[in-house]
Amino acid sequence: MTELNFAILTISLLLYVLLGGADFGGGILELLTRGKASGIVTRAIAPVWEANHMWLILVVVILFVGFPTVYSTVLTALHIPVLLVLIGIIFRGSAFTFRHYDIEEVTPKAIYSAIFRYSSLFTTFFLGVTLGGIILGEISLDHNNGFYAIYIHPWLNFFSFSLGIFLVVLFAFLANIYTLGEIKEEVHLRRFTRLAKRMILVLVFAGALVFVAAELDGHSLFYEFYHSPASIISVVLATIALPFLWINLNRNNRTWVRITAAFQTIMIVAGWFAIQFPVVVKMKEGPDLTIQNAGAPPETQFYLLIALVVGVLIVFPAMGYLYKTFKFKKGISSEI
Amino acid sequence: MDEFLAARMQMGVSLGFHIVFACIGMVMPWFMFVAEWKWLKTNNPVYLDLAKAWAKGVAIFFAVGAVSGTVLSFELGMLWPTFMEHAGPIFGLPFSWEGTAFFLEAIALGLFLYGWNRLNKWVHLYTGLVVGIAGVLSGIFVVSANAWMNAPAGFDWVNGQAENIDPVKAMFNKAWFSQAHHMTIAAFSATGFAVAGVHALLYLKNKLEIHAKAITIALSFAAVAALLQPISGDLAAKNVAKLQPAKLAAFESHFKTTTRAPLIIGGIPDVENEDVKHAIKLPGFLSFLAHGDFNAEVKGLEEFPREEWPPIPIVHYSFQLMVAIGMFLALLGVIFLAGRLKWKHWLGKKWWMKLLTIATPLGFIAVEAGWIVTEVGRQPWIIYGIMKTRDSLTPMPGIQYTFYTITAVYLLLSFIVIWLLSRQIRLLQSKYLSND
Asked: pLDDT > 70: what percent of chain B?
């Protein structure tokens, strides 16, 4: 049961990366294209963004119900980057909504847009930094250590920052790919296809950077990667998919472009999990937090699982209906 | 500022901010649902305008409520990690259900807000109803988790560890029902009077049909809620008397254990001398309200060691304020229902509109006061009788700074929301005035 709950946690995280990530990426994309994309981005994410961000809440809830030590350890040691993420989430969500609902005036709109864009970038970056802190294994809650060692060092390092950069590029890439499907104008289509291709190259580069940064911080990702067949397979699959993505981009086959990009993201996350499993949080001293030793008692896992399964049965059809209504119909939105 | 105080203040600010948005986000969908339903039935376009205007309000409040709720789900662990580590597996079940309800609410809201021209109009109406129902459910789940902190159940506490965990028992703890109905009714009352108050103010400026209709819809909910609230409050207080006698004693600054305990109205508690100055005292009424018998014994604070007393004055004042507002809103509820049933001309009168305008913020002041009563009244415990709030504080120093930051962010956000809504209202107003 603990494993099943953890699997649902993983899937929620993955969906947050795929769906919520594209929303964050929307802001970054606007920043990159200096606002030229803003109409398209709004059109693509407005009806679904609230629902997309529920995945994060689900992740947090599963953590504190099912894996309470993970929740308390991460939020104690990584208090600072998480706080920065939260501030980013507040500004981003509010600014996006305000931009949409405030009456049409140039100055406030420009301010909302700026806040939306920069906080999308900021939030994504620190989300990556937080993840980096969880993976790197510099967390130690020994109170004999000073403030810096406990609360700063676990996340202020090359690896965490490189992961922040990687996540920024990944989210922007995902947003770019999704946005392609919403574009009707030929000019924009060409511009965004070109951008997507450039983004692929940057993404590969950012991925390599993560490995290099890990070596600099003394955490040999190469070594672990090499010793985990599952993660080799997933990364190989992600790489093989690259030319396929490129060809479909050239052919303007948008459905396949989306599927391929989503597949690659899933493979990246799977590769990371293959290395990490069953460790959830790597600790500097003492035993790592694993699915087993950080899991709540079986009674809790049982009722959590029931709640999650029922939840999935209710939410997925509703989510499907939402997407069907807004995502796969032509001519979205004069009304938005 | 002391770290511990800063952490409590940060939690208070975050909850106090979130609760306003959460209440509006769960109640206003019902108003927009009724407005749309009226439009479908009467074909009067005013109702459609109203439904659309309210839907915009819902979108704004829901979005801010969602982000501030997300923040809270992290803050619990950032400020009180020890509490969450032990309590998460016990009281977390309602949160997992709340996740589903909230998810459904978000999806239905997306369909409602952007589906005006895409969905069949009855399906569209139905999505509005789903938003309302899911909102109320998620509110009840969250309150049930809070109730567990007041009436912990579903585990054995052995040497500082929880054993024999039963999440279902924890969810349906002894306080969940009384807290759930009290909060849900409060949300309807507060939101209803706030919405009616804003429209009453506008009606005083321009007697537009849309405002009159808006007031009727909002007050139909609010009046019923305001009349139910004293009953609900009475049940809640009786429950507190049973489960948390120290908290009840703090409500009333009741220091000495007595029979025929007096109900203390107003007054200034003097904790040093264990007395309340300048108060009206109604002998026997506290006994009656707490236990249904004028001669019943009511435990005073003297029964508890001093370090287990909640901060008396703040709990006392908040409780008095909440009850006073509750009574006033119930009176307005009576006037409204009397007006609907018999004295129809009352409801168009200037004095009535002015009364409603005054009542605009009152419901929310009562909601905030009520949460201060519940939360501060539970101190020094975070899990009543089991774990002290101080013992669950994060070891990270410098919480003052996170408190200042969060407070500044929420203040700014509050100003923007108010400014934004006033702009929206002006827009609606000008549309109608130019049509005339």
From this structure: 100
CA distance B300 to B6: 30
The rounded distance, in Å, linking the Cα atoms of A263 and A167 is 16
pLDDT in tens, B144-203: 999 999 999 888 888 888 888 888 888 898 889 999 999 999 999 999 999 999 999 988
Would an 8 Å CB–CB cutoff place A142 in contact with chain B? Answer: no
For residue A311, list chain B residues with Cβ-Cβ distance below 8 A. Answer: 96-97, 99-100, 103
Q: Name the residue range of residue A88's domain.
A: 2-326
Rounded-to-integer distance, Cα A63 and Cα A5, Å: 10
Number of domains in chain A: 1
DSSP A227-292: T-HHHHHHHHHHHHHHHHHHHHHHHT-HHHHHHHHHHHHHHHHHHHHHHHTTEEE-BSSSPPEEHH
Q: State in Å, rounded, how far the first CA of chain A is from the last one.
A: 43
In this predicted model, what pLDDT tens digit does every residue of A63-82 receive, in sequence order?
989 899 899 999 999 999 99
Which pLDDT score is estimated for B27? 94
**pLDDT level of residue A330 (50, 70, 90 thresholds):** very low
pLDDT attached to residue A81: 94
Least confident of B8-17, B114-123, B265-274: B265-274
CA distance A143 to B243: 38
Instruction: Supply the pTM of this predicted model.
Output: 0.89
B88/A48 CB distance under 8 A = no
B383 inside 8 A of chain A by CB: no
Asked if B168 has any chain A CB less than 8 Å from its own CB, the reply is yes
- Determine, yes or no, domain membership for A278: yes
Our CA-based measurement puts residue A77 at a distance from the nearest CA of chain B, in whole angstroms, of 8
Q: How high is the ipTM of this complex?
A: 0.88
In a domain, A335, yes or no: no
A148: in domain: yes
In a domain, A336, yes or no: no
Check if A241 contacts B (Cβ < 8 Å). Answer: no
Provide the percentage of residues in chain B whose pLDDT is more than 90: 42
Q: Which residue has the tokens 């999935």?
A: A312
Contacts of A315 in chain B (CB under 8 A): 100, 103-104, 107
Q: Is B421 on the interface with A (CB under 8 A)?
A: no
Q: How far apart are CA A81 and CA A92, in angstroms?
A: 16
Task: Indicate the SS3 state at residue B151.
Answer: coil
User: How far apart (Å, rounded) are the C-alpha atoms in residues A87 and B402?
Assistant: 11
Instruction: Inspect the interface and report whether the beta carbons of B70 and A53 lie closer than 8 Å.
Output: yes
Residue B89 contacts A where some CB pair is shorter than 8 Å: yes
**Look-up: residue for tokens 């694993």?**
A290
Contact residues, chain B, for A98 at CB < 8 Å: 60, 416, 420
CA distance B224 to B226: 6
A313 touches chain B (CB under 8 A): no
Yes or no, beta carbons of B104 and A318 under 8 Å apart: yes
Q: What are the structural domain ranges in chain B?
A: 3-241+314-411
